[in-house]
UniProtKB/TrEMBL annotation:
GO molecular function terms noted in the UniProt entry: 2 iron, 2 sulfur cluster binding; metal ion binding; monooxygenase activity; oxidoreductase activity, acting on paired donors, with incorporation or reduction of molecular oxygen
CDD domains referenced in this protein's UniProt entry, alphabetically: Rieske (cd03467)
Cited Pfam families: Rieske
Protein name per UniProt: Cytochrome bc1 complex Rieske iron-sulfur subunit
Gene3D superfamilies for the chain: Rieske [2Fe-2S] iron-sulphur domain
Keyword Cell inner membrane: no
The protein's role, per its UniProt record: Iron-sulfur subunit of the cytochrome bc1 complex, an essential component of the respiratory electron transport chain required for ATP synthesis. The bc1 complex catalyzes the oxidation of menaquinol and the reduction of cytochrome c in the respiratory chain. The bc1 complex operates through a Q-cycle mechanism that couples electron transfer to generation of the proton gradient that drives ATP synthesis.
Rieske domain residues: 54-146
GO cellular component, one term: membrane
The protein's required cofactors: [2Fe-2S] cluster
Keyword Signal set for record: no
Keywords: 2Fe-2S, Disulfide bond, Iron, Iron-sulfur, Metal-binding
Length: 147
């Protein structure tokens, strides 16, 4: 193999490696959420760009008695009663895992089974002993905005 051919092969392999890394790590900014009420269901609450500057979700995306987990924003939003929205950290206070779902009135961590109340983030089942941290949020029209 000549030096020119060897260089072409190495450059080609290097370019493919860079393309693979960019594809794997270069997300498009989509903020996918797990939205659940009494039954577990997956879905996307959309992106901030689609829902207005800084918007996390539409109020209609958060079911009454349920919630949505936004792993990339490390937040879970719930609606314990109609029109009453709450936001909490989605990081479990037991070992730092991400909570994964909201069902039957609780925010659920898959790692060790901890459960938290959708109304106030209080522990309803351990091993966690501390509630989820409340996050500031507000409803602007039909959008939920953090902060």
């Amino acid at each position: 193999m000549t030096d020119a051919t060897r260089r072409a092969v190495l450059l080609g392999a290097g370019g493919a490696g860079v393309a693979a890394v960019l594809t794997a790590c270069g997300g498009d900014g989509d903020q996918t959420a797990t939205v659940t009420g009494d039954q577990t269901a997956g879905g996307s609450a959309g992106t901030g760009a689609q829902q207005g500057q800084g918007a996390l979700a539409k109020t209609a995306d958060i079911p009454v008695g349920g919630g949505a987990v936004f792993p990339d924003r490390k937040v879970v939003v719930t609606q314990p009663a109609a029109g009453d929205f709450k936001a909490f950290s989605s990081v479990c206070t037991h070992r730092g895992c991400q909570v994964q779902s909201v069902s039957d009135g609780t925010i659920n961590c898959p790692c060790h089974g901890s459960k938290f109340a959708i109304a106030d983030g209080a522990v309803t089942r351990g091993p966690a002993t501390r509630p989820l941290e409340a996050k500031e949020m507000k409803v602007e029209g039909d959008s939920i905005v953090l902060g």
